[in-house]
Design a protein that fits this description.
This protein has helices spanning 15-25, 38-48, 64-73, 91-100, 112-152; strands at 7-11, 31-35, 52-55, 82-86, 104-107. The longest helix is centred in the C-terminal third of the chain and has 41 residues, at 112-152. The termini are far apart. It is globular and about 60 Å long. The relative contact order is 0.15. With 153 residues, the chain is α/β, with parallel strands linked by helices. A 5-stranded parallel β-sheet has the order 2-1-3-4-5, sandwiched between helices. It has 5 helices and 5 strands; from the N terminus they run βαβαβαβαβα. It has one domain: Rossmann fold, CATH 3.40.50. Strand 3 (52-55), helix 3 and strand 4 form a beta-alpha-beta unit.
Length: 153
Amino acid sequence: MDLSGSRVLIADDNEQNRELLDAYLADEGYEIIMANDGQATIDAVAANQPDVILLDIMMPRMSGYEVCEQLKADPEKRGIPVLMVTALNEMGDIEKAVKAGCDDFLTKPVNQLELKTRVRSLLRVRHLSNERDRLLAYLEEMEQRILKPKETA
């Protein structure tokens, strides 16, 4: 499965962290989008429809927890995988992230191989889910075409 061209949103209030994650993913062929706070992340999701979000927890204007909860509450955005990337590593932080709806969790400092592997895995899931949805819509359309003439007869 070719994942190049997938859109990855990196949301972190620290510019060096954003640049590091961007550099770690640079050779993967992803389209990288950046956001520097919680509200900018929500806006970037609406404007760009990313395929995966790398989300810091501690951000101004809206925490990563709040961003994740808001995205997962929206039927049009809940399918976007969220990978929390944070310096917080207490069990309570992880539990809170999972309750907010995150799909995976990485602790800073991030290992490049681990980041690439998890992003690739989440992108595969996202693309397979999109393909499933397209196939289900197609089957539903075909079913309607087949049933419609019988109903009018």
